[in-house]
Specification:
- This protein has helices at residues 138-144, 153-168, 195-227; strands at 2-3, 11-12, 17-18, 23-25, 28-30, 35-36, 41-45, 49-51, 56-57, 62-67, 72-73, 75-77, 82-83, 88-90, 93-94, 99-100, 105-106, 111-112, 117-118, 123-124, 129-130.
- With 229 residues, it is α/β, with parallel strands linked by helices.
- The protein has two domains: 2-168, Hexapeptide repeat proteins (UDP N-Acetylglucosamine Acyltransferase, domain 1, 3 Solenoid); 195-229.
- Strands 1, 4, 7, 10, 11, 14, 17 and 20 form an eight-stranded mixed beta sheet that branches.
- The longest helix has 33 residues, at 195-227.
Length: 229
């Protein structure tokens, strides 16, 4: 879902992938060959949001910028980053090649230096600084994406994953909504059929009786003709 906010509207590069169930709202810029997955929310509320190139924002992550008349807290996510499922990032600066693990929370004014990482469920407080290098996600990313370990493994993993996602979702298409049909309730033994069913049976019986009466009438007419000869 792509939403404008007043005169502000998202700018999404044509090569980026945005899932149909993601929400992109307001002054949001998404760079080339990035991927925003299902359920993610990226919203600019009084300040801009910028997401770089080859960056992956995973399922149900929330990325926000905020601002008012006195203070503004823009959000910047660099190139070749991964923001994990359920992460919450607001008003922060995330450098290039960073990894934000699932469920991590990063608050206003925080800064992640290039190549740094935030561990699973970790909290980065207001105005806190995360220096590089750190071990968060390095071993897991190298193993998952079959990459050699190194200082830039997060960036390489992000670029590899973003490329895979764009290819995997290139053929996605919206289908008709699936609706489960509620089965009719089971009747107990000896229970009367529902009124609609009884009505339909009555109609069938009425038609059969009319046909039988017509047949009997024709038979009687034939008998009278035989007697009159």
């Amino acid at each position: 879902m792509i939403l404008s906010s007043g005169t502000k509207r998202p700018k999404i590069h044509s090569s980026a992938y945005v899932a149909p169930t993601a929400t992109i709202s307001g002054e949001v810029t998404i760079g080339p060959e990035s991927a925003i997955l299902h359920g993610a929310v990226v919203t600019a509320e009084g300040a801009p949001v910028t997401i770089g190139a080859h960056t992956v924002v995973m399922e149900n992550a929330v990325l926000k910028a905020s601002g008012g008349s006195a203070l503004t807290h823009p959000l910047s996510i660099g190139d070749r980053c991964i923001v994990g499922p359920g992460a919450y990032v607001v008003g922060a600066t995330v450098g290039d090649g960073c990894f934000v693990a699932s469920g991590a929370k990063i608050f206003n004014g925080a800064k992640l230096e290039n190549g740094s990482g935030v561990a699973l469920g970790a909290i980065v407080e207001v105005d806190e600084r995360v220096a590089a290098p750190s071990d968060a996600g390095v071993k897991h990313l190298a193993k998952i994406f079959n990459l050699e370990s190194g200082e830039d493994v997060r960036a390489r993993a992000a670029e590899t994953y973003a490329k895979f996602l764009r290819k995997a979702h290139a053929q996605d298409a919206m289908l008709e909504e699936h609706r489960n049909v509620k089965p009719p309730p089971r009747r107990r033994s000896g229970e009367e059929p529902p009124p609609t069913q009884a009505t339909q049976v009555d109609k069938v019986v009425d038609v059969m009786m009319l046909e039988l009466e017509e047949m009997e009438h024709r038979r009687q007419e034939a008998i009278r003709r035989q007697k009159g000869r």
